[in-house]
Amino acid sequence: MTSPLGTGQGGDPSGGFMSLDYSFLIANDAQPDQVLNLLSKSALGLERDTEGHWLIKWSAEQNPILLVASVSLDDYSQEIREEFLGFRPSLLVGFTPQPDNGDTFEEDSEVADRTMRDAVILLLRNLKGNAAFLFNGDQNLLQRTAEKLVFDRDWWEASLQRKLEEVA
Q: Treating both helix axes as pointing N-terminal to C-terminal, what angle do 105-126 and 32-40 enclose, rounded to 10 degrees?
């Protein structure tokens, strides 16, 4: 399995599968384990791995289709991201979709994406502070600063856009 905290890890040089990484960054005093507990106790179907470091969304065939992890950011990582985001995030929640290329690829991809988007909305509702949701570290899909929320309407489907507007 590919780490949800990497950037582009898990690919092979022959042009095979390359992971997609999504990062939720927030300036908040929450701890990584608190965030994982919040997500695992929700109705999203995320379960802790046997060592408790990651959350996993399983397919009907019991294959992992989404990995989630959370870490506190050190001063250097905060400073680098502050230049890009305009705020200093203290926590990163990493999401890595892992759909298998088998017969259920489309369905598993949709479930992983929906779970990830619902998780971001849950985090925005429960954690105050400036936040951003990035694709592969540089494409900003959502940003909340000073209680104002801006998001990529092409990426967020209409029903989730309404939920996002309620969070703002």
A: 120
